[in-house]
Amino acid sequence: MNANEIEKWGEEINRWIREACRDNDCLGLADWIKWRWRRMSHSMGIARPLMYFIRFSLPLWEVADEWNRRNTAKHEACHIIARWKAKEPIRAHGKEWRQAMTRAGEMAQVRHTIPTPPRVLVPVKCGCREKQISKNIAGRIRNGKPYRCTVCDQRIALIR
Fold first, then answer.
1. Is 131 exposed, middle or buried (0-12, 13-18, 19+ CB in 10 A)?
2. CB-facing half-sphere around the CA of 73: CA atoms within 13 A
3. Measured between alpha carbons, how far is 160 from 148 in angstroms, rounded to an integer?
4. Taking residues 76-100, what's their average pLDDT?
5. Coil, helix or strand for 52?
6. Is the pLDDT confidence value at 98 over 70?
7. pLDDT digits (tens, 9 = 90+) for 31-80
């Protein structure tokens, strides 16, 4: 991967966002949508509709084929488009989003097909059992944020 390739991908993302907006009769919205690369390892993209903002995974983008890249860019743009057109809260992958994806000429697919590394799980315990949680939540517990078991309502503790 080099700077020219990343720049080319950025131009493609901008074009696909514009196409999705155009196909959904809201071309002006494309100027409001901003995006950034992030080092996410499982999601190709994440949209924040109320902020008109999208994060794309650079590591996954690097190994994705063009179909997954285009579908992801339009998928995330359609989250913003659907929310903007509805003018009220909607389900993330509900009918408004599916309609926006169809108008954008894409399959309303929720999952990408890029292989991802296995998730790192951390063992924890509560009053009723031992289980595993994500590394991210374990870090929050380690930093003092209390989490409670949904079964026994006891605090979840890391197993050392």
1. middle
2. 28
3. 18
4. 97
5. coil
6. yes
7. 999 999 998 888 999 999 999 999 999 999 999 999 999 999 999 999 99
Which of helix, strand or coil describes residue 119? coil
d(C-alpha 76, C-alpha 42), whole Å: 15
**Sign of the alpha-carbon dihedral angle for 65, 99, 41, 35:** positive
- Structure tokens belonging to residue 90: 């909607």
With bands split at pLDDT 50, 70 and 90, how would you rate the model's confidence at 1?
A: low
Domains of the chain: 3-103 (3.30.2010.10), 121-158 (no CATH)
- pTM for this structure? 0.77
Amino acid at 68: N
| Helix and strand counts by DSSP (H, E) for the chain | 5, 6
Q: Are 85 and 96 in contact (CB under 8 A)?
A: yes
Measured in whole angstroms, the distance separating CA 55 from the mean position of its chain's CA atoms is 7
